[in-house]
Amino acid sequence: MLISFVPAAISFVSVTVLCPFLIIILKKLQLTQPIRKELPADHQLKKGTPLMTGSIFLVGIFVALLYKQNPLMIFLATTFMLFSFIGFLDDYWKASRQDPGGVSGKTKLVFQFLFTATLLFILVKYFQINPEIHLTQNFSIPLPNALYFFVIMFFIVGSANAINFTDGMDGLLGIVAIPTYFFFFFISERHEVQVFSLIMIACILGFLIYNIYPAKAFMGDTGSLAIGGSLAFLAVLEKVEILIPLLFIIYFAEQLSVILQVTYYKLTRKRIFRMTPIHFHFGLKYGWSENVIVTVFGFVSWISTFLSIMYWKFLM
User: Fold this and answer.
1) pLDDT computed for residue 113 by the predictor
2) Are 257 and 168 in contact (CB under 8 A)?
3) Alpha carbon distance 232, 251 (integer Å)
4) d(Cα 196, Cα 192) in Å, to the nearest integer?
5) Which residue, among 175, 162, 163, has the nearest Cα to 215 in the 3D structure?
6) Which residue from 41, 195, 273, 301 could staple onto 281, CB 3.0 to 4.6 Å apart?
7) Helix axes 278-286, 290-315, angle to 10 degrees
8) 173/156 Cα distance (integer angstroms)
9) Band of the pLDDT at 22, cuts 50, 70, 90?
10) DSSP track, 182-233
């Protein structure tokens, strides 16, 4: 087990050392964060912060592949890189054109569904993932292959975007994602999943040195979509789909707040929240600072992880 921490330690040191150089390069290329006009005044001050610094996570992927080059590790690495590629396209558009809108949502969804369908086909066919939803150790719901594929594909894309919504404050996604990766490290019997999860935790910790408030760099969709895609596929790989509403509670709360806000506004021309995703609401409505919001959301993520582990340990 101890040797599993070696690639994680290498990843942490590498990200910590290399991130300042990436920040300098992005500043020189003027690939920085544009800010939406409707965001609060304190967020307007973040304009000019280097974007797409989440590409530094690819250092961890490189370390993972050097450590173990077998089909499962290659699959996990490919998943991360494909979703990172989608995020990179969006980030590059935003940064190079200083357009907060980025690539159109339809374009991103096309890529997400295309990559997800391909990866899911490989996962089911070559890694013997059964088309069923495990509820407890002795009870599962079998689904027809086509229905399972359809449902899980939408789940993965939805989860990836929900996690992407969470990347909206300094350090927020990193603080929330670490417990989620820890869950997969703890429950998995696959050495590759354990190593991959530890490496991602290490990369995020190294990146947080530069991303906690006040952030010197933003991971952008390059990092957040990659984290989202990899976590969603880990849930399918480990057959813990039933735990996703609990384990991903912060991510889904962020996404649900946006859906509710848009739907309610279209129907009534009124808003439920001061601003969405919901992390903005706590700042505008209750005056919480970014650090307080990040701390509370991180605490909730650890609680949901602990409860998920308990469910998995005693019922699955």
Assistant:
1) 97
2) no
3) 11
4) 6
5) 175
6) 273
7) 130
8) 18
9) very high
10) HHHHHH---HHHHHHHHHHHHHHHHHHHHHSSSPS---HHHHHHHHHHHHHH
Helix (H) or strand (E) segment spanning residue 73: helix 71-97
Name residue 50's beta-bridge partners: 32
252 token code pair: 């889904």
Is there a contact between 222 and 84 (Cβ–Cβ < 8 Å)? Answer: yes
Query: Which letter does DSSP use for residue 31 in this model?
Result: -
Q: Is 84 helix (H, G, I), strand (E, B) or coil?
A: helix
Model pTM? 0.96
Token digits of residue 46: 């973040």
Position 292 pLDDT exceeds 90: yes
In the chain, DSSP assigns E strands to 132-136, 139-142
One-letter amino acid identity for 234? L
Q: For residue 62, is pLDDT > 70? A: yes
Residues 6+ apart with CB under 8 A from 116: 153, 156, 157, 229
Extract the tokens encoding 156: 């993965």
Rounded to whole angstroms, how far apart are CA atoms 60 and 70? 16
Region label for 262, one of left (φ > 0), alpha (ψ between -120 and 50) or beta (otherwise): alpha
133: which DSSP letter?
A: E
Query: What local confidence, expressed as pLDDT, does residue 41 receive?
Result: 66
Residues in the chain, how many? 316
Q: Could you give the count of Cα atoms lying within 13 Å of 311 in the half-sphere of its Cβ? A: 18
Sequence-distant (6+) residues with CB within 8 A of 121 are: 149
CA distance 289 to 53: 24
CB 87 within 8 A of CB 220: yes
Whose structure tokens read 């066919």? Answer: 125
Q: Which of 101, 103, 92 is CA-nearest to residue 29?
A: 92
